[in-house]
What we know:
The complex is a heterodimer.
Chain A: E1 2-4, H1 17-25, E2 33-34, H2 42-45, H3 47-57, H4 69-81, E3 89-91, H5 103-121, E4 126-129, H6 141-158, E5 164-168, E6 171-174, E7 177-180, H7 186-201, E8 242-247, H8 248-253, H9 258-265, E9 269-274, E10 291-292, E11 295-296, H10 300-309, E12 315-318, H11 321-325, H12 332-350, H13 352-357, E13 361-365, H14 369-378, E14 387-388, E15 398-399, E16 402-405, E17 417-421, H15 426-435, E18 442-444
Parallel strand pairs in A: 1-12, 2-3, 3-4, 4-5, 5-8, 8-9, 9-12, 13-14, 13-17, 14-16, 17-18
Antiparallel strand pairs in A: 6-7, 10-11, 15-16
Helix pairs in contact in A: 5-6, 6-7, 9-10
Chain B: E1 3-7, H1 17-27, E2 31-34, H2 42-45, H3 58-75, E3 78-83, H4 95-115, E4 120-123, H5 129-132, H6 135-156, E5 159-163, E6 166-169, E7 172-175, H7 181-195, E8 200-205, H8 206-211, H9 216-223, E9 227-231, H10 260-269, E10 275-278, H11 281-286, H12 292-311
Parallel strand pairs in B: 1-2, 1-10, 2-3, 3-4, 4-5, 5-8, 8-9
Antiparallel strand pairs in B: 6-7
Helix pairs in contact in B: 1-3, 1-12, 3-4, 4-6, 7-9, 9-10, 10-12
Amino acid sequence: xxxxxxxLGMVGSRRPSQGLHDLERxxxxxxxxxxxxxxxxxxxxxxxxxxxxxxxCGIPFLPDHPEQVPExxxxxxxxLGQTGLKMPAALTTSLPRDRSNPELNEILxxxxxxxxxxxxxQGCDALVVRPLYAGxxxxxxxxxxxxxxxxxxxxxxxxxxxMQLLLENQSKYIEGHLxxxxxxxxxxxxxxxxxxxxxxxxxxxxxxASVNPGKKSGGTGxxxxxxxxxxxxTGKQEREPFAFCLDVGTANLCGQDVYELCTALGDRIRAxxxxxxxxxxxxxxxxFTSIEKHGCQTDWLSVIRGLRTIHFDGDLIMxxxxxxANFPNFLWPQLLKLSKELADYLHWQIHMGDAMxxxxxxxxxxxxxxxxxxMKNYGEEFPPLFTCDNNESRWGEEFxxxxxxxPEKLKSLPEGTAVFICNLYYREIEQQLRGMxxxxxxxxxxxxxxxxxxxxxxxxx
Amino acid sequence: xxxxxxQTHNIVxxxxxxxxxxxxxxxxxxxxxxxxxxxxxxxxxxxxRLNGFFSQSVEELERFFTPHKEAAAVAGxxxxxxxxPYPNFIPGAPDEINGYLVKEMAPKSMExxxxxGCRYIVVHGLKVRKYYGSEEAEWEAxxxxxxxxxxxxxxxxxxxxxENIYTNSGGHIIEGPCCDAVKAAERIDxxxxxxxxxxxxxxxxxxxxxxxxxxLERFVRTLGPRLKVLHIHDNDGRADLHQMPFTFTITxxxxxxxxxxxxxxxxxxxxxxxxxxxxTAPVLNSFPEELRPEALHMIAAIGNYFAKRIAE
Lengths: 461, 312
């Protein structure tokens, strides 16, 4: 899984260097080519004013001059070249949600076409694209998007690129209230992707040998069908031109169960745009930070369950530009580090089972609810040899099919055995075990976001 | 023109049902949505409290509801639909509670439905997704429950209607059972085929849809003829407030933030021929008692407006 850092609100379009270096120092390896840096939604909200402002600042105003997309991105790309960061994915410019004037679609189209061209030339292997929605009546979305999206695919081919176009789920604006919009229904997503891929495949395939390898691509551009890196000639079936990017924030705004979205779409999801919001306002906040008195406003349980169930291994694109905008800029580097740790944490949760897979044997430490939850979710696939507990009165007891042993028994573990701590006092227990001289690997197990739960909690353990 | 209806809660009182049904008629309604759920409240059930109402025999229950039945007939109100008490399963509750809901409450609700001459009864799906892990597993549990009452529906010629409901994450309302119209349609068709009769339909709740971020127009169009009954009410997109349509705006332009135009278009496009039924009991709480008849008139007027627009 590639974790892609957030550049919006962090990296200046004209002086991008500092922001990019901050991202690198925070531990990120990847950043997107986020075209919203050069033409954000606001450009379409007050075009007259923004045109004037662009003129005064001497920067390209892309709604009038879409051909200047490369010029607008020049400083960013140059600065990126001075870092070790890779740029595997891109995101296109989009309209504000509340626009209902269909003419805006016509202004947007040439900008996005230029962005597709530039992203392909830069060697990106995925580009997130929003379908057109301004002023399109219910039921006409497909016919109004089909030709547009196929044209974007043809541009990718003209550029001899294998870049995938990732369609993104949308919300629909009802006078200040956001509800499910185009591509929020998984059945519709599947219909669109199948139809677009069939039609796009019918276009002439590019000469594999001349596929643009890209000068700053992710380098790990993955081909679903061949497992080959982007740009490699395999002579085998090329990957599908269209796939899906799941915007977690949009799903949350529309009250959607992300688990259901994930399991319905499976490996069609190639990227996840990870952002928090309060479910009403279209914000991009750091995960786990949109909290009201009852708790998190995004159902992270459903997000993690869903991505875990489909073994998601695509791009995790962080977007927390509204957090940055409202955080003291002096502390941005620290916020970036926290964001990277959050992304790593989510990666760990999503791939919880991978940790067990690495060892020949497993033993648990802890004989309470977390142990019970381990057994419910992983006991069959990764059966532990036994569990242990500091509570002497429970030694020898059978618990969830495991014998509770004293910690001393951990001193004689066979090679290739890891201890999984099933207790919230992780660090304290790890210290205890290391103090006892145990050298086997120690891992933390966590049951906060497991796939199933018991309806009750054991008490008094 | 479509008929209009309103729920009986806050209007029809056990002490004098005739006054309530008369008030409904005077306001302009021809149909009632009988609020059977008020006889075993969800707030009590979540506290594991059973009030014994459904412990009465069917004969006793019929006797209890005879004045309601007669009063509706005298007032010229047809009891078109009713609401079964909910939830019908409480995760973690003692077995005697959950057993009571399946063995006493549910079948006796069907008996009351038969007695009142009501064609449709609305039920909630089980909310167990968090524990069982998926919507599919949750639906299986709901379907298991439905099979305990569907044979009675077939015998009595009734239609049980599943309703789109919500759940929450940290207080933020998100989709709950029956919020996927495509799946709902497939399940209704499959079960009706299994029973060889129209025993299952859908109750579309506009307020629940609005807070769960559903697109009203798209949802109704997808359901098509499976849509049998309506719970029409409005909210601010955040809480389940059960207010009358056109109440809420968010922007300074003050246009309604619920897509009533889309709702009207969708009902027109599927040739909906049921009752425009309002689940707006809380409106009567928010108005002073002297203004309640006027508030009810207003709701009926909205119903008539909808009916006119749908007929265009």
